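Predict fold of CPL domain-containing protein; 648 aa.
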Amino acid sequence: MAGIKRYQDGSRSTSVKKAKVDVSVQQQKLIKTTVRQSVLPSPEDSSAASEDVVTPKRKVSQTNRPANLSTSTQGGEVLNGSSSREAHAKQKVLVQERKAVKPNADSIARAKKIWERLRRKSHVPRDERDKLITELFSIITGRVKDFVFKHDSVRVIQTAVKYGNLQQRRQIAQELKGEYRSLAESRYAKFLIAKLVVGDDEVRDVIVPEFYGHVRRLIRHPEAAWIMDDIYRTIATPEQKARLLREWYGHEFVIFQSSADSALTADLHQILMENPEKRGPIMQHLKEMTNHLLQKKTTGFTMLHDALLQYFINCTSGGPEATEVIELLKDDEEGDCLKNMAFTKSGSRLVCLALAYSNSKDRRTILKVFKGVMKMLAGDAHGHVILLTAFDVIDDTVMTAKAVFPELLCKESEEQQRQTELVLQVEHLTARIPFLYLLSPDLPKWLLPNQDTSILNEIHEIRKTTSKKDAQIRRQELVKALSQPLIDLVGQQTELLVSSSFGCQFINEVMFGGVGEKHAALDSLAAIARGKPELMNTPYAGRMLKSLVQGGPFDKESKEVRVIDPPLRFESMLYSKCHDEIVNWASGPNSFIVVAMLESPDMRDRQSLVDALRDQVHVLQEAAKGSGSDKKGNAGTKILLQQMEKSR
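Predicted 3D structure, encoded as tokens:
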């Protein structure tokens, strides 16, 4: 912006320098903000102009300009605020005129008006919306292709898909047949595919086949790659997924695909077994495609993870091909590849295999990549198995404990927040698995899904040749580092844990498998049993107390209770707190807890218990007979009466 010439002695130059302005119409806005102002001499100072001293120019802001200041145009006319608005209005008119001469201009304009109304769903009554949708379909029917490749009008088609019925959606899908690859490559139209393909198998079977033969191109396209991978991951049938994945194996699998072959497989091992001579070209083509995406840092595709897994499991164990894959994974400085893979089925399995086959240094490198996301891994349906693999194969348990447990145990949070987060974790179906996996030497069948069991069995076979430390010693060292915070949690959040079935399972596993001071936690459990009797009437709370009284888990193979060492001796502690309620327990839902007390060899107050029951034997007899809907009677009470008869 031009400055203003000022003079120290008050004199002024008799000549006024004209403002230099850009005369182009397109830069009128720039002219307004870059005008040059000249200060005219005042009459008083004209006689005193003896010596001109020029000071540095200063900028004049738009807000400080005089109100009557104007700018010059080409013809010397003054362009003020009103004329500027007129120029903008003329430009808008020109734009509208240009749009009007385009094909379907009126239809697109009316459709956009309808869209403006429909998109505010809460402001449009149902009857009016139905009328607008009918009108909208009357406009777009037969002309859908004219709408979908424009960034503004494609929204109209998306709204039509959203509010249209099944037949109308299929009509749109049929009109776009043959254009889906182009739509997937469009920055805006790809979202239309996402709306069309969900919830209708017929439309899905129209769209997905149009990707066949173009996977190599689409997976590298910045727009199409994500929509194709979303379809592959979420709604494609197994046969469609196999066809898409097979294109990673070479051009032959693009050209020669029989549409009638419903038994098509993408299992590379099976393909190589049938055609061993094709191993070299297939592995080379697969390597090139995966490396291209890895180098571009586009590692979030499920299809890529599936392809990498197929490549890795068909490499020779310990060979240069397998080693190269591990090097690619661990050399990613930001770790994006490993982090993305950890949350998909194939990707998590590949990370587990990489941990199992790597040396100790590489295992440490891979595990450190997940710093900051350990809790996310623990709560993910696929990611948690990576933690279990790390527990099973890394010999340096001190490093493992320092890398994993602080995040899982929320040690950086405030105490109350830490306990709340821990309770949420141990009561979560998946997030509790890393805790309970270590605490149980013999895993309960209810803990791990079959998929996890299969992966871990594979890992256990590999670690026989890649890990040195004994598995039991490794587990015990990790349990020692993990146990005490969990035992303390049982003592501090007893009521919350007892109120849920997962919480009761967690209490049992911690008390039986944990190593540390348990007296405070057991005392809190006994106090809750007395102070909150309503919590004890649930089946899961009753089973928990019964197991704690028995002193260990029940072994289904030996049909006996496996008492832990050192023993808990919870039965005497519980009886001392709840002896006033013992008859109600013996005749109610918790009768088997009292049976376990009588059968426990470590029960110090056994005679006192028997005497208390004998004093109210008539109550027990009534419960054993049953009444009303419970005609069979209380099974636990019957056993108690038999035990009392034997002890006479």
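Residues 25-84 form one domain.
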